[in-house]
Input
Amino acid sequence: MYRCYPTFPATLALAALPLMIPATLAATVEPPSEQTEALGLYARGRYAEALPLLERIDAAGQASGALLYRLAYCQRIAGDGARAGETERRALESLERESVSTSDLEVPFYLANAYRNAGRAADAQRVAAEATARVERGEIPRPQSGAERFQLGKLYADQERADLAAEWYGKAVDLLTGDPSGERSYVRWASRFLAERAFRAGDYSAAARFFGLLFDEGEGNAADLEKLAVSRARTGQYAEAAAAWARAGLENPTAADHYRYSSRLAALAAELPAFPRTAPVGKPWSELTREELEVVMKEESDRAKGILADAREVERENQAARAEFKARLSAPKAAFVGAALEYALRGYGIRETAFLGGYAPLILKPTAWHVRGKPQPEQPE
Output
């Protein structure tokens, strides 16, 4: 697959100056160059607008290897694969020449990417290793901008040095998320890398942050939303987890039942005064087996249904009795929700289990846990 690793943020046009400005100073303010404008558009993902500017720079013989790499990507996005392939070839040749005397990260970064796109993984790894070694020796300054930090992270990733890649990707994201003119594709790429890494490690706080950033940047799918929801639920962000699962159901209707049940359980967890950290037997939810979770769900749902049935036998106007039933209901509700949410978080078939267990309405029906009672009999006139 052809990959895009755009350049570091381009300088944007200066903001409008105050009206009271000396004419001599105003005359020195020049519009941005065509290259600055092209790189700024590219950085913000506006490839169709950047394309003609990059083509004019190339036609004038002023395109570096890195600029040709960007041009090739814009051409490919525009559907012109033939021209993109030729531009990629020229970009690779130019980057190889420039790599002999480069003193920064941009050339090796793009050269490694170009080699990978050409199927030359060993050359990509070699170039990446040489570049990071120069940084470690102090021959190339340690990166300061968000884009340069991303480039160093990617060069470490090209060598499968994941810890260092994550370190520099994290530093890049910290800067780029606060810079609206920065490379958005860098934020997306780094956020996905960091999110997946954190999720695999069980660092759900970090995973929630980076999956959230991924969606803030307009990327992600139903599987990503599922991981975002799980990460939020694992860190106690139950309302936010419910929203992520609900959105996943819209993204992937074929798995809508799983997302709907999970979303409702997270919403129920958000309603609890305090989410139970342990099961009724005293063990953390994480230590219960699947079968033990199913037993808790069945037993606590039966207890809850018995309390709700008893509550229907008292008049609704009997506030003291209704308050007592609500108090009695709080323990089985908390235990049921704790077990059922843990069940869903592990990816077990919560829909099928709830249906067979006879407690699906306790999950799906928003008013299922309401203590209703019966209407007071009408008094004779």
User: Anything to note?
Assistant: Residues 1-30 have pLDDT under 50 and may be disordered. The chain has 18 helices and no strands. Residues 285-364 form one domain. The longest helix spans residues 319-345.
